[in-house]
Amino acid sequence: VSVVSIMADMMMRGALFGGALRGGDDDEGPxxxxxxxxxGIAAMIAVPIVASMIQMAVSRRREYLADxxxxxxxxxxEGLASALEKIRDGGSHLKRANASTAHLFISNPLSGKSLASxxxxxxxxxxxxxxIRNMSEHI
Length: 139
Fold this sequence. Notes:
Layout: H1 2-17, H2 32-74, H3 77-89, H4 125-136
Helix pairs in contact: 1-2, 2-4, 3-4
């Protein structure tokens, strides 16, 4: 994510200040600078979105790894699955939740499906329960 962000920043700076991406000569012809500028602006818009999606995917993956570590540590997957069911059924969704603190919760406090799940910091609780119960077969 950092490399992509740096590349997008370099493209934008090159488009704005000129010469950085073109080598300093003006042999691009008509519209060459405009294309570089449009490419830099598109990268400036797309990179934070893609970076957020990658960051959230890593966060969801860490939740699954934490569940697996809990199962291996306790050797009691049914207890962990039951605890997650209680959290799910206890109404962990908030009426007013802040996306900046969502990663601090055990389950996703934000409601929403489909596209919002790409930016979710937590995997669905039902998926976590299913994976934990699947792991109980292998212990």
